[in-house]
Amino acid sequence: MNGHQIQSKIISMEIDVLNAVRQRTLDQWTDGPFVKESRLFFLLLPYFNGEQWSAKMDTSANTVAIVYAALHAHDKVKEEMPISKEQQLTVLAGDLYSGIYYQMLAKLKNMEMVQKLAAAIIQVSEKKASFHEHRVQQPEEVEETVKVIETALLNSFYEVSEFGNYRELMECSLLYQRYTDELEALKTGQFSYVLSLLSETMVHSSLIEQWLMERLDALSEQILLAANDCQLDFEVKAILLDQIIPHQHSAEQLTREG
What we know:
Strand content: under 5%
Order of helices and strands: HHHHHHHHHHHH
Structural class: mainly alpha
Radius of gyration: 19 Å
C-alpha cells in the first residue's frame, strides 16, 4: 500500500466519523468532532500492513474513533461559570457521540468489543480525573496516566481483533507524539495538566524539558525496534516516521536509521 492510499484511507475514516455524528445545530455552535490523525493511523495500521481485515473490524475501528471524538468533546468544556451555550452544546455533542458509538456496537453485536471499550473508557476517565487530585505524582505515575489516556481505547481494539503485536509500537509512538506536544507547550508557555503534574517534582522548567527530551530519545529507539519487530511495510514505516511522529530532529534521525 503506497502513501497516497494510506492517506486516502485515513481521510475516508475521518469522513465516516464526521458523517456518523454530524448534527447541524451542534456543528454550528461547537468545533465539531475531532480525532487526531495519529489515532486514526494506528486504528488502521494492521490493515495498512497487510493483515486480514474484515468489515466487522472496519466498523469497530470507526466506533473507537467516535469514542475519541466523544471524549475530546467533553475535554473541550472549560471549567467556568456561568456555562455558555457553546459549552452546554459541547457537552451535548459528547453525549451524542457516545450514544452513537454504543448504537453502532449494538448493531454489530460485538459484546466483547463493547465490554473492552467500556472498561477502557472508565480507565481513561479515571486517569483524566487524576489531573485534578491534590497530590504529588512521580514522573513514572504521570507517564502511566498519559499512556492510558492516549492508548487504552486503541488497546481494546487491538486486543479484541488480535493485533497485539502492534501494541508496543502504537504505545511508544503516541507517547512520543504527546511528549512532543508537551515540550512545545513548555517552550511557548502554554498550560498543560501534564506539565502541571511534572512541575510538582521538577521545580524548574529546565528539569522538565530535560526529562521530556530524555523520554523522547528513549522512545525514538523503542519505536525503531518495535517497527522492525512488526515488519512494517516500507511505505507504512515512512508515513509513521515522516508524518505521524512530528518531532523534527528525532524524526529525521529515525528516518536515516530506518
